[in-house]
Amino acid sequence: MSANPSLELISFKVCPFVQRSVIALLEKQVDFKLTHIDLSDPPEWFKGISPLGKVPVLKVGEQPVFESAVILEYLDEVYAPKLHPDDALEKATHRAWVEFCSELITTQFKMLSAKDKDAFEENRNSLKEGLKRLEDVLAEEAPFFAGEKFSLVDTVYAPLFMRIKIVEAMRPLALDIPERIQMWSDALLARESVQNSVVDDFESIFMAFLKKLDGYVLK
Ligand SMILES: N[C@@H](CCC(=O)N[C@@H](CS)C(=O)NCC(=O)O)C(=O)O
């Protein structure tokens, strides 16, 4: 049997969509190379492999795979342990909640980059509503989305929760996070793959990124 091709993940250090891919790779204990780029001044070669101009891109050998949800699916098909459920309907449900998370991440970014109080509050409220909605679909038995077993859905919510925690340490966001969501967040942020999914100085890099955004959140 031929060996799997080498993997290189093209990254931007504060990107939550990159981070979900890193968590999946670490959970699967797959060797990969991480290449950080500066999105404000992307290298010429990046334009050639990223049709949407976005990270992450996973280079599988010479073949670039873009879009984080697609990258997760690819990794899950090729590398054990399986992080998606086997059952088709359960899997579809998990995929749907991955999409939901991508919306929440966009809302979180809009909240953090909002220039005035109204825009900040509008996005804060929509993030708050989203987290409340999420509580209804969480497994009764914690710690993870589907219960005892860590799944692909968990890889996508961890970056969202990590950013909430960092910002809340500096400024309360009044998100009224439901208790079960908070327990899920705590379990995810304590997990080794999640802790190792960002660079060592992530918090200060993320704060510097926020300062550059110059949003209402820091006022
Ligand atoms: N749908 C994409 C979203 C990725 C994304 O928005 N990446 C951001 C960084 S976090 C990016 O590359 N932005 C560059 C740009 O939009 O020009 C995915 O899931 O991979």
TrEMBL record:
**Under which EC number(s) is this enzyme classified?**
2.5.1.18
Q: One Pfam annotation, family name?
A: GST_N_2
Give the signal peptide range: none
Task: Please give the name of this protein.
Answer: glutathione transferase
Its EC top class is transferase
Q: What is the lineage of its organism?
A: Bacteria, Pseudomonadati, Pseudomonadota, Gammaproteobacteria, Thiotrichales
Domain called GST N-terminal: residue spans: 5-83
Check the record and name the SUPFAM superfamilies matching this protein. Answer: GST C-terminal domain-like, Thioredoxin-like
Enzymatic reactions: RX + glutathione = an S-substituted glutathione + a halide anion + H(+)
Organism annotation: uncultured Thiotrichaceae bacterium
